[in-house]
């Protein structure tokens, strides 16, 4: 049988294919559909999602679900229909209502993740059995990652489809104006009708399925793919395994997302069509679930169960909904999960649940008869992967079976609960620990045994760094038959701590132990406290896992410079949603195109002796070349990047100087072959004959005097007399230390470039870059050719955040080198793992400070020493001192002095990341203020307020860039947000909450920001074509920040000054085109938040020129035909008169006004779970001064997105290195950016229109980076909650060595992850609490 399927209704027939080919591989390289993106290759980001439709000819039904095309094998979709975002709707056929609403709610910025988001929503809509609810809408995108928007507009777009939504609660959008009636709102929404807008299954596939329904197998001689239809057939295949070669049993293939297997198998066995393995059967003993049943289908079956065990089954289902994401659960099988747990130590939630209900599994073991064993026995067996055993099904017993040895009467109660501590509640994150408890308890009335007695219990724990989930049988035996009391529970906890022993390489050992203790306490303590069964054990499992997200936005649109100031939909938003927007990797691959992958160093300092592939004298499949520094043309240079501060090499030469440094480029026929070959590369190092040791810390750098020079011109100046300020101080904090870690960009589109050789030694390069001009120069220098021989083109970038500036240069340069040398196109699409290892990220730093202050909280002097880890190469690190000191000066320190050293180390080169230095500087200021308040035992908000700048002190600290007095809006914002957020009232409510709650504590914090930005010279060009349409070029790059949209609005405004008929409706006639370094020179960097406004000013100046040229013609035509001159007529006349209708400028800001200050205030309230360390952001309120916004919708998106990215930095994202300096986190499994379930539950934003600013572009101000600093309010609120937890812990009667006696004197690290928060709240707080209760 041939492999045949449909994509967007179009028939595809494949005669032969490698069975390891994924759906994504096929779609991207064999179809015109490009909406399916490769973001991670792990099933962890949602960029690759498609809808898979299967037709059942027996039931004449079509079932749809979303799947990860990056994991799903193509052969597994035989006879199915695939729908991508283009298949839902597109430019030619009309966009789908989902696309339109995403655009109208401003829910797409860079657009790389948007098609996957649309597919997630569509899948949720199509699978909603009843009316689509707000809860379903919120959960529909919980497994998708977005780095730009902050999720709020995405959630609003999804909720607009919900039947139970209050439409007035939906956020800022283009469909209605504030104050319009609900009827108008509903009428203006793009209509959605499930009957019209759902995808239909192709008839040609239906006919095929009906004809061949008895056999659906492929010809294994052509596909090496077998689909057995019975257990007997599978048995014969497995028994003949030795003769057939290596076998792989597959259902959804989701395991490869975790293990990233490179092994190629001789034959793939698709077991999803075996009835015995794919059915769900309910009997008197329990539920049998076939091993090939997907996790989603198992969840549905457990939810529908109506037996006496339904309460337990529903609890299990609710827990299983937290596993992976929708697409993983739709593909991944129950059996696959269990086998990975049994054979490869996968941290499984399902095994823990099954252990707690004493479940069994059935296996095919050599013979044809199935063998039944308990799950705990199954987990102890030798690896299933190393044997011929096959898992057939799982049997979950009914509660009556589980309690068969125990009598159940009216005083007996069955209890079940499961637990899971993970970085995200439901957003695709492995747990630190999971647990599931089953107990049969009874209430005793006799005096000697009054209270609750444990008659029977199963206590299961998993995912804590063990080989597999376990039952704590010693604790079970100890508790059985005992009447619960604090002393009994305390002894049980002691036993448990000896059982939960994480593996030696497992991080957070004690934290994981404390989780096990905490969960045991949470389960049994309510029975002790109340003396009877608590409702917490039988709560409604059907309730939403996500609280409803709510938001409000106060945004003022301006019509002073129409259409500038209006909330115009982002250019190309619908195109991005449908997936038709073209990114570099979407450019059709030429037939002779080669692909590249870097080989990088794993040593921090070593000589390179040789590079070869794993098998000597054997070149891996598809490899054409291995390029090193020796392959750079003689006339060229080994250069891979440059800034004004220096250069960096393309490849390490004879010496590699940091782990992750580029050593070579593998060039192969496909990206998959290039990536595989790069992993097979073996670098032989010499680490013995190195004269000096590697510098891996800033302390080592100080000892060795290893620093980058910072020119005095950009080194910040001290303020005031610190010695005098210290003398005036009544109190001091001396030698306090603070450390800040790094952060990875996690742009959704990895680094990518395409280079094409051209005639006469020329090369054309498509680069996903924020700095094409610099890419251009580096390529020319590397190849040793003149710059006019190089052309770099950038249309759009799938997220940058600074990471696509300097770090994009070596990617493009390596491709250019390959194309130049091999005279064939070379493309590189860097895999996420390599990208993370090479990215460098944000600068880590160490700060040691002395601060003097008065008893009323007023700071009199601050001095500090700062050591910044810049890594090996200069990059932009020399500007870090200046960037840090800008926001750090936001308080009146009295006097300020500092010694900032930029350390050169043998670590990955750090680079600019959104608000580079500014986010750290602003936080350092907050940390100092927090410590001052703690030292004085004062309210920290009071200390903040007393140290806010007056205009006089602002002038002292910011000198020439402080602006006029009326531009200093921070005090106004501070007071305004206090009222709108009800800060004082909520602060009192937080205090009351903390008094009334033992195991949850809240904190609230208000944080101001002052952020200085710098305008830079920026080019622009505006050309009017003969039909009156307009084409615009700017130096700035569209990264998702809405630069093109603002530029388009500015051109419409500027050309509208000609004042003819139709000139007020030019917006739709303007197109901004891609950056071309030969067409638009001096483009510079798109960075620092001001490129949009500078680009706008550049094109405005162009428009002034053009209007000046058109004015005489216009005046003459108006005299001849008063009032009847249209824009088209005017342009035709101008063309006839040969008037130059193309103008270009280089906007150069004046020195006196090129820098300015931005202001904002953020208030956040959090709740900390003292058992797990989980921090939930209950509410965030932001107020930000945008001047007169050029586009409020764009600026709102920037503000929200920056704030959420800040949440990631302060609370979640760990980007660390090992002892050799190699990055530890290498994918979505261990690097967690915020998701829908981790952002603020209530998110309120107000953009203040602060009026006229004479030196700004139409009075506008930047919005891209400054709001990120306000996310420190979340961290500070968490600190406040922890402080309350520590005070409480000290009030108990037993000592916890984890908490010092001062209690409130501590430093909260960044990021404040769950283990960090828990450790500061007290790793042993449960034991401490129980001891206190025992002692009375």
Automatic annotation (TrEMBL):
Family label: Belongs to the xanthine dehydrogenase family.
2Fe-2S ferredoxin-type domain boundaries: 1-88
Keywords: 2Fe-2S, FAD, Flavoprotein, Iron, Iron-sulfur, Metal-binding, Molybdenum, NAD, Oxidoreductase
The protein's name in its UniProt record: Abscisic-aldehyde oxidase-like isoform X1
Superkingdom, natural source: Eukaryota
Lineage: Eukaryota, Viridiplantae, Streptophyta, Embryophyta, Tracheophyta
Residue intervals of the FAD-binding PCMH-type domain: 218-401
UniProt xrefs under Pfam families: Ald_Xan_dh_C, CO_deh_flav_C, FAD_binding_5, Fer2, Fer2_2, MoCoBD_1, MoCoBD_2
Coiled-coil residue spans: none
Cofactors (names): Mo-molybdopterin; FAD; [2Fe-2S] cluster
SUPFAM superfamilies per UniProt: 2Fe-2S ferredoxin-like, CO dehydrogenase flavoprotein C-terminal domain-like, CO dehydrogenase ISP C-domain like, CO dehydrogenase molybdoprotein N-domain-like, FAD-binding/transporter-associated domain-like, Molybdenum cofactor-binding domain
InterPro entries, alphabetized: 2Fe-2S-bd, 2Fe-2S-bd_dom_sf, 2Fe-2S_ferredoxin-like_sf, 2Fe-2S_ferredoxin-type, 2Fe2S_fd_BS, Ald_Oxase/Xan_DH_a/b, Ald_Oxase/Xan_DH_a/b_sf, Ald_Oxase/xanthine_DH-like
């Amino acid at each position: 049988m041939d492999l045949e399927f449909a994509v967007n209704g179009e028939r595809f027939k494949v005669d032969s294919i490698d069975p390891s080919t994924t759906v994504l591989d096929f779609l991207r390289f064999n179809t015109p559909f490009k909406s399916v993106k490769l973001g991670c290759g792990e099933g962890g980001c949602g960029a690759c999602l498609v809808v898979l439709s299967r037709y059942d000819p027996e039931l004449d039904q079509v079932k749809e679900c979303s799947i990860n095309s990056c994991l799903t094998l193509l052969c597994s979709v035989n006879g199915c229909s695939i729908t991508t975002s283009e298949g839902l709707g597109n430019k030619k056929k009309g966009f789908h209502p989902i696309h339109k609403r995403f655009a109208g709610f401003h829910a797409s910025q860079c657009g790389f993740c948007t098609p996957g988001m649309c597919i997630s929503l569509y899948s949720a809509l199509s699978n909603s059995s009843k009316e689509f609810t707000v809860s379903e809408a919120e959960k529909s995108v919980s497994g998708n990652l977005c780095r730009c928007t902050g999720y709020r507009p995405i959630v609003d777009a999804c909720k607009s489809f919900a039947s139970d939504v209050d439409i007035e609660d939906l956020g800022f959008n283009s469909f209605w104006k504030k104050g319009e009636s609900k009827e108008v709102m509903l009428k203006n929404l793009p209509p959605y009708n499930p009957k019209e807008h759902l995808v239909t299954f192709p008839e040609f596939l239906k006919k095929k399925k009906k004809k061949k329904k008895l056999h659906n197998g492929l010809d294994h001689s052509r596909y090496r793919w077998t689909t057995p239809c019975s257990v007997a057939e599978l048995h014969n295949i497995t028994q003949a395994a030795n003769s057939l070669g290596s076998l792989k049993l597959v259902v959804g293939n989701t395991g490869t997302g975790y293990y990233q297997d490179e092994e190629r198998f001789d034959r793939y066995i698709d077991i999803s069509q075996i009835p015995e393995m794919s059915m769900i059967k309910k009997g008197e003993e329990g539920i049998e679930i076939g091993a090939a049943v997907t996790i989603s289908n198992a969840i549905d079956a457990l939810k529908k169960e109506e037996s006496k065990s339904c309460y337990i089954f529903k609890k299990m289902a609710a827990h299983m909904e937290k596993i992976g994401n929708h697409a993983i659960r739709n593909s991944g099988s129950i059996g696959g999960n269990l086998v990975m747990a049994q054979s490869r130590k996968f941290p499984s939630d399902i095994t823990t649940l099954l252990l707690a209900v004493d479940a069994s599994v059935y296996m095919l073991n050599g013979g044809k008869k199935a063998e039944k064993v308990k799950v705990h026995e199954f987990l102890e067996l030798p690896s299933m992967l190393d044997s011929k055993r096959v898992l057939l099904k799982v049997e979950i017993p009914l509660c009556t079976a589980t309690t068969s040895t125990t009598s159940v009467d009216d005083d007996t109660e069955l209890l079940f609960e499961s637990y899971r501590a993970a970085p995200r509640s439901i957003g695709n994150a492995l747990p630190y620990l999971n647990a599931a408890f089953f107990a049969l308890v009874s209430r005793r009335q006799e005096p000697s045994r009054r209270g609750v007695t444990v008659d029977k219990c199963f206590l299961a724990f998993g995912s804590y760094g063990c080989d597999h989930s376990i039952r704590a049988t010693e604790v079970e035996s100890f508790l059985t038959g005992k009447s619960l009391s604090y002393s009994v529970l305390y002894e049980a906890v002691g036993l448990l701590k000896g059982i939960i022993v994480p593996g030696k390489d497992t991080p957070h050992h004690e934290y994981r132990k404390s989780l096990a203790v905490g969960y045991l306490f949470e389960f049994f303590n309510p029975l002790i406290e109340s003396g009877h069964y608590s409702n917490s054990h039988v709560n409604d499992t059907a309730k939403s896992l996500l609280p409803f997200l709510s938001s409000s936005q106060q945004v003022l649109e301006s019509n002073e410079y129409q259409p500038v100031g209006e909330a115009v939909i982002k250019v190309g938003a619908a195109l991005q949603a449908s997936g038709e927007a073209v990114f570099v990797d979407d450019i059709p691959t030429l037939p002779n195109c080669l692909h590249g992958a870097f080989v990088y160093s794993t040593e921090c300092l070593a000589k390179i002796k040789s590079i070869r592939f794993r098998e000597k004298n054997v070149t891996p499949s598809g490899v054409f070349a291995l390029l090193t520094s020796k392959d750079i043309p003689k006339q060229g240079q080994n250069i891979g990047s440059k800034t004004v501060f220096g250069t960096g090499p393309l490849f390490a030469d004879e010496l590699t100087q940091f782990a992750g440094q580029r050593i070579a480029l593998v060039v192969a026929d496909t990206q998959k072959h290039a990536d595989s070959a790069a992993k097979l590369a073996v670098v032989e190092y010499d680490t013995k004959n190195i004269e000096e040791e590697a510098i891996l810390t800033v302390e080592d750098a100080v000892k060795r005097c290893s620093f980058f020079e910072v020119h005095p011109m950009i080194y910040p100046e001290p303020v005031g007399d610190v010695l005098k300020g210290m003398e005036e101080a009544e109190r001091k904090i001396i030698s306090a230390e603070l450390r800040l870690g790094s952060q990875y960009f996690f742009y959704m589109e990895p680094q990518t470039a395409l280079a094409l050789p051209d005639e006469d030694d020329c090369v054309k390069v498509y680069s996903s870059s924020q700095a094409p001009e610099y890419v251009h120069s580096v390529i020319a220098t590397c190849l040793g050719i003149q710059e006019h021989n190089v052309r770099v083109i950038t249309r759009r970038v799938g997220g940058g955040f600074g990471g696509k500036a300097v770090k994009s240069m070596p990617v493009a340069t390596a491709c250019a080198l390959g194309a130049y040398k091999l005279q064939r196109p070379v493309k590189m699409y860097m895999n996420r793992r390599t990208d993370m290892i090479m990215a460098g990220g944000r600068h880590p730093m160490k700060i040691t400070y002395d601060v003097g202050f008065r008893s009323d909280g007023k700071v009199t002097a601050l001095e500090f020493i700062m050591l910044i880890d810049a890594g090996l190469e200069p990059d932009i690190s020399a500007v870090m001192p200046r960037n840090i000191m800008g926001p750090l000066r936001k308080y009146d320190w009295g006097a300020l002095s500092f010694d900032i050293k930029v350390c050169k180390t043998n670590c990955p080169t750090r680079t600019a990341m959104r608000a580079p230095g500014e986010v750290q500087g602003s936080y350092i200021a907050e940390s100092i203020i927090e410590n001052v308040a703690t030292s004085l035992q004062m309210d920290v908000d009071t200390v903040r307020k007393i140290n806010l700048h007056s205009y006089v002190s602002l002038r002292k600290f910011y000198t020439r860039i402080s602006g006029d007095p009326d531009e200093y809006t921070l005090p106004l914002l501070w007071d305004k947000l206090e009222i709108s957020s009800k800060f004082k009232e909520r602060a009192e409510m937080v205090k009351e909450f903390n008094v009334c709650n033992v195991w949850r504590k809240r904190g609230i914090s208000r944080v101001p920001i002052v952020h200085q930005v710098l305008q830079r010279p920026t080019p622009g060009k505006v050309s009017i074509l003969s039909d009156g349409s307009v084409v615009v070029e700017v130096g700035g790059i569209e990264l998702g920040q809405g630069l093109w949209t603002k530029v388009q609005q500015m051109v419409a405004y500027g050309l509208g000054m000609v004042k003819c008929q139709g000139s007020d409706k030019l917006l739709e006639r303007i197109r901004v085109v891609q950056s071309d370094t030969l067409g638009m020179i001096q483009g510079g960097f798109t960075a620092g938040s001001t490129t949009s406004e500078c680009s706008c000013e550049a094109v405005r100046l162009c428009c002034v020129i053009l209007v000046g040229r058109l004015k005489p013609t216009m005046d003459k035509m108006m005299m001849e035909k008063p009032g009847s001159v249209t824009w088209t007529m005017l342009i035709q006349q101008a063309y006839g008169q040969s008037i130059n209708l193309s103008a270009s400028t280089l906007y150069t800001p004046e020195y006196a006004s090129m820098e300015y200050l931005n202001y904002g205030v953020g208030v956040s309230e959090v709740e900390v779970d003292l058992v797990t360390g989980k921090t939930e952001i209950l509410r965030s309120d932001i107020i930000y001064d945008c001047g007169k916004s050029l586009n409020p919708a764009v600026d709102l998106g920037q503000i929200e997105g920056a704030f959420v990215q800040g949440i990631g930095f302060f609370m979640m994202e760990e980007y660390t290195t090992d002892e050799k300096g190699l990055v530890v986190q290498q994918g979505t499994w261990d690097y967690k950016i915020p998701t829908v379930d981790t952002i603020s539950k209530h998110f309120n934003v107000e953009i203040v229109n602060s009026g006229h600013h004479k030196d700004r572009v139409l009075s506008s101000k930047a919005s891209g980076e400054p709001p990120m600093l306000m996310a420190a309010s979340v961290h500070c609120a968490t600190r406040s909650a922890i402080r309350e937890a520590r005070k409480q812990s000290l009030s108990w009667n037993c000592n916890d060595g984890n908490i010092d006696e001062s209690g409130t004197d501590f430093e909260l690290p960044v990021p404040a992850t769950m283990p960090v928060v828990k450790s500061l709240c007290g790793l042993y707080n449960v034991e401490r609490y129980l001891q206190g209760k025992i002692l009375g």
